[in-house]
Amino acid sequence: MTIAAFWRNLRWRAILKFAIAIVLAGTSALVAGRVTLWIGSDASVLLHLCGVTILALAVGPGPATLASVIILLVLLPPLLSPAAHADQFNAVVRVGLFSVSSTLILLLSVRRKTASRSLQLLLDHLQATIAELERHNAILRDENNQHRETATRAQQAEQEIRLTVDTVPALIARYRPDGFMDFRNKNWSEYTGLSQDNRERRRWGSALHPDDEKMVERAWREHIPTGEPFELEQRLRKANGEYRWHRVRRVPLRNESGEVIKWYAIALDIDDKKRADDALRKSEADLATIKHELQLMIDTIPVLVLRHRADGIIDFVNEVGRTYSGLTTTKWTSRTSRITHPDDVSRLEEAWDVALRTGEPFESEVRLRRADGEYRWFATRRVPLRRNREVIAWYAATYDIEDRKRAENALLESERRLQEAQMELTHASRVVTMGQFTASIAHEVNQPISALLTNADTALRWLGRQPPNLERAKPLIERIIDDGKRAADIVGRIRDMSRKTPTRKETLDINKAISEIVSLARGVISDNDILVKMQLSEGLPCVLGDKIQLQQVILNLVMNAVEAMSEVREGSRELKVESREDEPGNVLVVFRDSGPGLPAADTGRIFEPFYTTKPNGLGIGLSICRSIIESHGGQLRAMPNDAQGAVFSIMLPTGEDPLAATKLSAS
Length: 667
Prior knowledge:
The protein has helices spanning 3-39, 44-58, 61-80, 85-167, 186-192, 213-226, 271-300, 319-325, 342-358, 402-436, 438-464, 470-498, 510-520, 522-527, 547-565, 621-631, 658-666, and strands at residues 171-175, 181-184, 230-237, 243-254, 260-269, 304-309, 314-317, 362-369, 375-387, 390-400, 506-508, 531-536, 543-545, 574-583, 586-593, 635-640, 646-653. With 667 residues, the chain is α+β, with helices and mostly antiparallel strands. The strands form four sheets. Strands 2-1-5-4-3 form a five-stranded antiparallel beta sheet, sandwiched between helices. It has a five-stranded antiparallel beta sheet with strand order 7-6-10-9-8, with helices on both faces. It has a five-stranded mixed beta sheet with strand order 12-14-15-17-16.
């Protein structure tokens, strides 16, 4: 509601009250006149006072005052009229009585209104006070409920805290401000076997290791005055008597003024960690020692050690490499060593590219420049370091092989000279052996020549007739040609055996080689009354070897058998020559004679150089034979024959000339 509307309502209520007062005053005058006439006496003052009283009680002193003034105006005319003295006196009495009475009534009404207003104010104040008291009472009830709930929660929290403190997997203790332990949690009590309230009355605790008591006491005395938290590593005794290391942290609890009122401590078992730390420190110390020793070893071993990144760049060179090269830096930042001989760089780079691409180790021989400018041969081997199958680095070991290279070259030269000497010796042995059956050779050559001359003489006679008998002469001329070829073949074989030629391996038929030698030695065999039995298996695989050298071995063994059996005076002289495939990939040739046999004591020495059982022997024949057979990948053995004599066996691997096989396959 607006202020204007409020004042309008207030004004209309006042108008209404005053209108009621006017109406009531007029009504009172009319009623008083009627009543006076009715009862025959003047009761107007009483009626007017009743009306004023009713107005004062009903609408208030203001309208009652207005009504009193109106009634007073009504009572004044008789007083002013010319009437008898007695009537005027009565009128004055009535007016005075009305005025006094109405005034008293109005005053009482004012007092009543004032008292009513005061009483209303008092009632309002009392109601407000009661409402305030009820509000405070409700607040107090809420606060009491809250206090009870708070107390309940505090009690529950205390129980939970106590349970937590007893359950947490750590040792927890409480101390007085002076450091005296007055509480241990359940874990601490069970761990140490001591009471929770420190009935032992030990100030710093009863489970301390004797060697740690002074340290703990000193720490307490330093921190009690300052009130600063502190940590210690100390040993606590378990209930079983074992001491274990713990890290104990102690912190103060302060009141509002900052004074320390309690100390709290938590102890964590670090014995295993401490042992692990000790082991780790020892391991790290050992690792550092090993690393130092490894570095010393890497820098000391007489080898150039290099490390390459995964992309091949050199990022480490050991001390030996730096000293050799004269380069002080440990990182060369290149794929190939900067001291590599220019002629070896491209070859090394190609091999390095292949290794980096495949991840396979590789070896190479290169020349490296020394600090004084001299190039020396080195062998280098590089291997990858992998992590999860991925190459993360390469390590290389490079060692000096200059002396070995020179020794190898010297050895190659020595072997070349030795080979030449062996060839000379083999040739000499072959010539000497051939010299032993010169008569046989002459006999072999003489036969085809004699036949050739006889056939030529006969052919001339047939041709000298008139007319010439060509039919008779032609077969003779053909036999002349055959005898010439046979003689040429014998001379050719003799020339090949006596010629000094380099070793040339080819595919050959071992049976044919045996037959040629036996045929060549037929004369000396016949002169010594020796029966030769040949059992050569057909279809033998070919062997790969030098025909002249192998035939020299066969000839030497045949001649040794002939010489051995020439000393036999009784019994048969028999030489058996056998050939067969002994094992897959091997051909076996066996010579069995019926001579005096091998010396039992020196059987193992007959292949030694310069060892001989012949009075005039040089002791090099069998040694050369074994050398030749072994150079062909075979074996030459000797053993006694079953009845009498000796057995020499040659084991040769089968094969064919790769060049000949290539030509054959190409054709």
